[in-house]
Amino acid sequence: MSCDEYQGLLQDDVTRNLEPDRRKAVDAHLLECADCQRELAVLTALISSLDHQPVIEPPGDFSAQVLASLPRQRAFYPSPWWALAIIPILAFAAWLFRGPLLAGSFELARRLNIGPGTLGQLRLPVPSSVTAGQLAMVPLVVVGLSVALVVVAATAGRAYIEA
Amino acid sequence: MVREMEATDEEVLVQRAARGDEDAFAVLLNRYKGMMYSMAYRLMRDPGRAEDMAQETFIKAYAALPGFRGQSKFSSWLYRICYNTCISELRKRKPEVELDEAMAVDIDGPVEAYRTKGIQEVVQDEVSKLPDDYRVAITLYHFNGLSYEEIAQMTREPMGTVKAHIHRARAVLKTRLLERVGWENLKEVMLQ
To answer: Which residues contact B152 (CB under 8 A, 6 or more apart)?
Structure first.
C-alpha cells in the first residue's frame, strides 16, 4: 500500500473504527514512515479537539424565556391502545342499529346475488347452526375491525411523527 | 449506580413534565439547555439564531412530551427535535458554499490566528466554515457523540454518505489546522 492509502485509513485508526488486521498493517507502516507519523499526529490533535469542544451556555434569561413561552394547551396524545376502545363502541352501535343494518346487508346480498349457494360454492367451513342473520353480520364486523385498526395505526403514527 | 439513579430521576421528571408539571420541565430544561444551545450554535453559526432554535426545540418538546413513549433516551429525542428545527431553518436560506470554497476562506492570517485563539478555537472556527452537510455530520458525530448509524437515521441519509461527509470534513479541517497553526506549534502543543 502507498502512503496515500495508509493515510486514508488513519482517521478510522484514530477513532478506533479500523479492523484489527488493517490496524496492524497501519501500525507497522507508521514505525517506518515519518510522513504518516506526522499525519497521524495532526489527525490526533484535530480529533481530540473535535471530541472536546466545550458546551456553550445560552444567555442568562434563556430558561425564563422558554418557560414564559410554553403553550398553555397541549395536543392530546392518547395511547394507541386506547383507540381499541372503538371496538366495543362500534359493536354497541351495530347492536343498536341491527335492524336496518341487517336489512341493508340482506338487500346488498340480494343485489350481488350472494346466497347460501354462494357459500357452498366457496366451500367455506360454516357450521350449519349459523343463521343467515349471523352471516350477514360478518361484513359489519370486518368493517368495524378495519376502522379500529386504522384508528390505532393513525394514533401511533401521529405520536411517532410529532415526536 | 449514580447513572441508574439519574436515569430513574429523569424518567420521573419526563413523566411529570408530560402531565404538564412545569417545575419538572424546568429541571430538564436547565439540564439540557447547554447541550441544545451548543448544538444549535454549531449548526446555525449565529448566536441569535442558535438561541431561537434552542428555545423552539424546548417549546416543541414540551408540546410533544405527552407523545414521548420513552423508546429512545430523552436526550436523543431532544437532539432529534433540535436537529429538525435547525435543518428546516437552514433550508430556508440561500444555497451553501461548496467544500472547496470553504477551504479557500481565510479570515485570519495563518499561525497568527492560533497565537490569539488556541487550537480549540481554531478548530471551532474552521468547523463553522464547513458547508451545512459536512458541519452537521461532524457536529453530530464529535460533539453529540452519535454513531454513523444514528446520524444516518436522524438525517435520513445513507450511512455511506454520512461516513463520506465526516471523512472529507476531517480532511479539510486537518489541512486548515496545519495551515493556521503550523506543524511546529502543533508539535509543541502535543508534547505539553
So the answer is: B158, B159, B161, B162
Number of Cβ pairs < 8 A linking chain A and chain B: 116
Query: Residue with C-alpha cell 499525519?
Result: A39
Hey, what's the cell of B158? 445513507
Cβ neighbours of A64 (radius 10 Å): 10
Name chain B contacts of A51, Cβ cutoff 8 Å: 142
Average pLDDT over residues A74-96: 70
Minimum CA–CA partner of A56 in chain B: B38
| The pLDDT of residue B52 | 95
Residue pLDDT, tens place only, A107-139: 777 787 766 566 666 666 666 666 666 666 677
Q: Which of B130, B155, B102, B101 is nearest to B42 (CA)?
A: B130
Q: Quote the CA–CA distance of A42 and B40 in Å, as a whole number.
A: 27
Packed helices B47-64 and B22-44: angle between N→C axes, nearest 10 degrees = 140
Pull the grid cell for residue A84. Answer: 381499541
Give CA–CA dist A26/A23, Å, rounded: 5
For residue B5, the distance in angstroms to the closest alpha carbon of chain A comes to 24
Contacts of B64 in chain A (CB under 8 A): 75, 77, 162-163
Q: How far apart are CA B159 and CA A100, in angstroms?
A: 57
State whether residue A158 sits within 8 Å of chain B by CB: yes
pLDDT digits (tens, 9 = 90+) for A3-53: 888 888 888 888 888 888 989 998 999 999 988 998 898 898 899 899 988
Q: Write the residue in A42, A55, A57 that is nearest to B174 by C-beta.
A: A42
Q: Which residue has the cell 349459523?
A: A130
CA distance B35 to chain A (A): 6
Ordered alpha helix ranges (H), B19-158: 22-44, 47-64, 74-91, 99-104, 112-128, 132-138, 148-155
How confident is chain B (192 residues) per 10-residue block, as mean pLDDT? 62 90 93 95 91 95 86 89 93 64 51 62 90 92 92 93 94 90 78 66
Chain A residues in contact with B25 (beta carbon < 8 A): 67, 70
